[in-house]
Design the sequence.
């Protein structure tokens, strides 16, 4: 499975692509940040992020996209920019019909470090270890994007298998119900004869 992790941000939007499956070593494909200038109008900054994400999707063709779920912080200007960048990430993935998963920061921290309260340095160190890198990706937004992709490979695969099993079970239930209705209708038709 190839996953594009996106750590949304208006000034620095982290992007990282990881290949792998549960139970096997993961591989770094690429990592970077999409940067915008605070001097530009907000609409232009969002267009820059959209174009950057589209380019990543074109180049790496991921199977899924993992985006950090936005949560309220004390600085409303920061949360607004993050939410706007997150919305762009969701739209570009949806346009391509890619599955998108939202992971909370504490979920990502717990997945890669074992603690939902890990700091940025601990997350960076664990990303470095998990992907067998020489040094933590810089800036932290890049490491966070990789942590999102790792989390999705590890957790998203299980979620997808559970959803697939649920769909199969539902289809079997519906087929059994249809067969029961058909048998009841046949029995009713025979009794009228």
Sequence:
């Amino acid at each position: 499975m190839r996953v594009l992790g996106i750590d949304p941000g208006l000034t620095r939007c982290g992007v990282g692509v990881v290949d792998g499956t549960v139970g096997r070593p993961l591989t770094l494909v690429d990592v970077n940040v999409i940067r915008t200038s605070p001097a530009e109008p907000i609409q232009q900054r969002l267009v820059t992020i959209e174009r950057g994400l589209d380019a990543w999707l074109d180049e790496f063709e991921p199977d899924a996209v993992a985006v950090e779920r936005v949560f309220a912080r004390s600085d409303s200007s920061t949360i607004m920019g993050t939410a706007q960048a997150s919305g762009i990430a969701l739209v570009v993935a949806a346009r391509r019909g890619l599955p998108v998963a939202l992971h909370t920061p504490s979920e990502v921290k717990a997945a890669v470090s074992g603690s939902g309260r890990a700091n940025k340095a601990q997350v960076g160190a664990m990303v470095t270890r998990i992907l067998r890198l020489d040094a933590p990706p810089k800036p932290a937004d890049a490491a966070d994007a990789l942590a999102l992709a790792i989390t999705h490979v590890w957790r998203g695969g299980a979620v997808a298998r559970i959803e697939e099993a649920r769909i199969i079970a539902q289809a079997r239930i519906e087929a059994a119900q249809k067969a029961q209705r058909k048998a009841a209708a046949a029995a009713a038709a025979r009794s009228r004869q």
